[in-house]
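Lab manual, section 2.4: Encoding a predicted structure.

Procedure: take the sequence of the chain (294 residues), apply the prediction step described in section 2.3, and record the output as structure tokens. A sample record is shown.
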Amino acid sequence: MAHNEAGLITSALLSITSQSQELLTISEIIVVISGSDDGTECLVEKVAAQDNRIRIVVECEKKGKIHSVINFLELASNDICVIASADVIADFQCFDKLYEPFLADQAVGMTGPRVLPRAQSGDSSLALRLHRELWEVHHRVALRHPKLGEIVMVKKEFVANPPYVAGCDEVMLETAVHINGGKLSYAPEAVVHNFGPTEISDYFQHRRRIHTQHLVTREALGYEAATFSPLHILAPLLQLVVTRPRKLGLILILIAIETRARSFARKDNQRGNVPVSWLPLKSARANLAISEER
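Recorded output:
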């Protein structure tokens, strides 16, 4: 799923085309390009010229990622599908590791990887340090309560007709799996890398938007994301402080920003300010260590 991802789309695609494929075979790669005007499509065409599995679908109007996800699921020919953002890099064995829980339990409907933020220019910024700690907390939450994101593998029978509300696309898929009686499974040995914002204002707005979407999901569908409840987060936070006491100051800042972001999110939700489509974080794009020009 891509919107103005010229800075990373080639690397993201190559991380998929070069997957190990010991347990599965990648027979098709569908790139849904939504409302892009930065040359993303041309870059995908260059990769597609070398790999006939790649199919490009252009959505002229940007209607939101969940719309593109539903479009992809309708087009995909396989029962097992991987849904990936165009701004993340999958490790070599990511897809195989995502597939293992499906082999172990037929009731599994969706799996997700561990997210390890990748270093980039400006890596010492407070926003990036918070981004790394946030995903460490998410990892520890997911070990107890599956929290799936960035790249997910789904079994189509469990995500047929996912809900379409102003929520996070992965949580929409989790909701569909829950409604259809399937299980979620966290696969920590599957690894994907993302790139965080370098500006605190971007970090704050991102956390505000995510919680707003989680509020919408709970109210509209009765489903809570794993990180929605403070009780799910408390034990991993305490564990992190105990094992890494020098991170206490950073954790306190993380808690303070998260608390304020959730407060603003509640007001946004009350006012109906819950867009289905949103702009990417500029500072996360501007400082990518990986450049398509190299």
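Check your result against the sample. The beta strands are 29-34, 54-59, 80-84, 89-90, 108-115, 151-155, 183-193.
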